Amino acid sequence: MREIHMVDLAGQYRKLKAEIDEAVSSVMESAAYVKGPEIKKFEEELAAYTGAKHVISCGNGTDALQIAYMSLGLKPGDEIITSAFTFVATVETMVLLGLRPVFADVDENTFNISPEEIRKKISPDTKAIVPVHLFGQCADMEAILEIAGQYNLEVIEDAAQAVGADFIFRNGKKCKAGTMGIIGTTSFFPSKNLACCGDGGALFTSDNEIAGKIRSIANHGMKERYHYDYIGVNSRLDTLQAAILSVKLRHLDRFNEARRRVADAYDMALSGCDEIILPSRADYSTHIFHQYTIRVPAGRRDRLRDFLRENHIPTMVYYPLPIHHQKAYASHPFSKVSLPVTEKLCSEVLSLPVCPETDDEQIEYITGKVLDFFKQ
């Protein structure tokens, strides 16, 4: 059996080697390493894929979030409702800008922010909602957009783990993750479903004015050369990464379907095990399984993780501590908030290997060992 990886980057490269090598070679021959034509090409391809009117690439997913907040003119003290069950970038960029994160608890089944909990957190200082599409499926965007419309709030989607997922509205309309709010953001970190070979990120919007502001802020606040209309940052995707992403975008749907195949096989093999809770699939979103995350109640999660490690099966805990319990944020008022569902999930979640390269032999071995643990 091949070695099991959480993310098989080398295996994916081998599959796409000829295409990636050709794309990289073309950039090297042109020597247009910064702002080369591949940047515009990739942005246009991703816009066509997602349905967003504008895609603006940037240096990484964290920058994408910061630029999104900056482009909406949010001011220190403005409150933004989001989830504490997320990667820290969602929140740290708010804090760095002097914004005030307000945490709403998540849905126990989908792990995504609960619209009902959002309603409880709205105050006169609330200016925006940031749903995080966690582990590969969308938050309940129809309900979130209805709340935002009722209270005149902006919606910024953190879609770093869900590019390629579809949200299905009650009327049957489908929209890609990241394209429903005023701005969507994503990351192309190597472990993502759509990944480059380094750092990269992007923002989505269909608002022409905001798109222009985002492009300017990402380029030092510059519109005309050496004329600065905004306080900006220096954040850009390099040409090599754009060329690689264009290649991978052509295969994204196929790779996401391969992830679903792995998830389906896990579901089938583990469905009879009462000691674990399998990932829930919302009826309003497709799931691209950036992570296949089970829950292990009764305090047995860490023992299962150790057992799998001993049997050469890698796992990850996303996330062992919610943001409001992190040391860096202990002095912030939100550190005292009670989020019982989030806190329970952090003690139970365990992500199993899921990537397009995971094969049937590996799936059988992994699920067999999970079941063996609970037979002890």
- Give the N-to-C terminal Cα separation: 24 Å
What is the succession of H and E elements?
HHEHEHEHEHEEEEEHHEHHEH
| Biggest pleated-sheet summary | 7 strands, mixed
Specify the CATH class of the largest domain: Alpha Beta
- The number of domains is 2
CATH superfamily of the largest domain: Type I PLP-dependent aspartate aminotransferase-like (Major domain)
Strand content: 5-15%
By secondary-structure content and strand pairing, the structural class works out as alpha/beta
Described by the principal axes of the CA atoms, the overall outline is globular
Named CATH topology of the largest domain:
Aspartate Aminotransferase, domain 2
Q: Major sheet: order of its strands?
A: 1-9-8-5-4-2-3
Task: Identify the CATH architecture of the largest domain.
Answer: 3-Layer(aba) Sandwich
Beta strand count: 11
Q: Please state the CA-atom Rg, rounded to the nearest Å.
A: 21 Å
Uncertain runs: none
Into which percent range does the helicity of residues fall? Answer: 40-55%
Count of alpha/pi helices = 11
Report what the structure shows.
The protein is of the alpha/beta class. It has two domains: 9-247, Aspartate Aminotransferase, domain 2, CATH 3.40.640.10; 252-375, Aspartate Aminotransferase, domain 1. Helix content is 40%, strand content 12%. The protein is built from eleven helices and eleven strands. The strands form three sheets. It has a seven-stranded mixed β-sheet with strand order 1-9-8-5-4-2-3, with helices on both faces. A two-stranded antiparallel sheet has the order 6-7. Helix 6 links the parallel strand 4 (126-130) and strand 5. Helix 2 runs parallel beside helix 8 and helix 3 packs across helix 7. The chain is globular, with a radius of gyration of 21 Å.
